[in-house]
Specification:
By secondary structure, the chain is of the alpha+beta class. It is built from three helices and five strands. α1 runs antiparallel to α3 (about 70-85).
Length: about 140
Amino acid sequence: MIEHVGQAGQTLVIFALVLAFSLIGMLALVADLGTLFVAYNRVDDGALLAIQSGASAIDQGSFYTGSLRLDPQAAEQRCRESLAAARLPGHCTASARSITAEVDQAVTLPVPLLGVRAPIHVSRTAEPAFGGTTAEKTS
């Protein structure tokens, strides 16, 4: 009978090493995804607040004539101020019917793979609203 001396337990050691590296990889993935999720929510909330701020810039002349339109300059200004207050890089564009905020941010991950940063892009659009009424459609 052939006896393998000194080989007992090698499989257990290899299994323990593979399991340890797998767990470390999973922890890194969870940390990166958690950070990315929190960052996306922060950017999305900031863009939402910016367009809500801009959508409240109602053109007073149109309001008193029965139509509801934005003052594009005031809407863009309010939107930009809201993004600046939230320290978010982005830009706002407005017309008489809607306002759009676009935010692009690169997020540094806690466990970066090859130094890669994760990009986040959020675009939000709103129409002017006051008292449950939305903007009139024009042709």
